[in-house]
Amino acid sequence: MNLFWLRLWRREGVKNWSVRLRGDAYHKMYDSTLLWLTFGLAIIGFVMVTSVSMPIGQRLADDPFLFAKRDALYLSLAFSLSMVTLRIPMQFWQRYSSVLLLLSMLMLLIVLAVGNSVNGASRWIALGPFRMQPAEFSKLSLFCYLASYLVRKVEEVRNNFWGFCKPMGVMVVLALLLLAQPDLGAMVVLFVTTLAILFLAGAKMQQFLAIIGSGVFSVILLIIAEPYRMRRITSFWNPWTDQFGSGYQLTQSLMAFGRGKLWGQGLGNSVQKLEYLPEAHTDFIFSILGEELGYIGVVLILLMVFFIALRAMLIGRRALANDQQFSGFLACSIGVWFSFQALVNVGATAGLLPTKGLTLPLISYGGSSLLIISTAIVLLLRIDYETRLAMAQAFAKR
Asked: Would the pLDDT of 383 be above 90?
């Protein structure tokens, strides 16, 4: 059989993107749809960051391409890191998942001690000219740990309330460290994704009702405890009652969408990016995208995000069906994480959800987010590759 598909892609070396199957036919050993959707979102993100950040770059450093240059550097670093990550087998991530989790906790403690404060939140560690946000790494490390835990304890999670509470306890520890920064948005992502994966693992419904009830109650208390969170909630309900105060950011975002209409004002022709809309190149880049590219551009981006999340869930389902439990649970975690974070970002910019400091994956400006999200996508490609490899081996043994 053609030297068994070139010795099964040279024994898992990621050197060729396809192998000869029969005659002139070739069999892809990667998910091309996921790859091209990722490249497409990254390119759109770079173009939008360049367009949106020109006014603030001009004001801060007299260089309209300041953030575009940084984003290009982060994209280059993400691509280089992806090439390394692609060669690491999933067994490595499973074996060292606990180490990654402890490392993320240590980083979250360090940021509380020596982190840089921006807008009242200490979320970044300065490394020379670069700034790292440990909250982003904590998401990936927690999901690796959860997948590893479910491989070992999936029956306990399904049949024992204590088995269900253990991973939730780990999540709570990370959540407390994130709230100390404070970073409520990252905490919500961890909470929702953890619940979703435990649900997919087969945990009982009554356990979810208890945890969800306590989680909602805790979030309400956290909102009441901090005046700025309460202002965000009230401004979300009706931002026009205080459009120059607590509702300013949301009203400017809604005006950006309104100006976009069907086809948009054209790339580079946004008015709201002229520093009328704060954080336009990070949390609210989707608003400017709607203003410049219109309804058509918004729908295109949402479809691309949806299909990336769908591919992640399909890869996870295929891995679970092939008895690769760690890879399957991790792929599903990444799919839920990617889609939910995009949902929160888009919902906040459109006034459907309260404002949260969450980036739009692969599009918003942010080095830590881009590096971690790209690593997660590459893990999906690696999972898909190993699943196809295992299926090829099973086929050859028949």
From this structure: yes
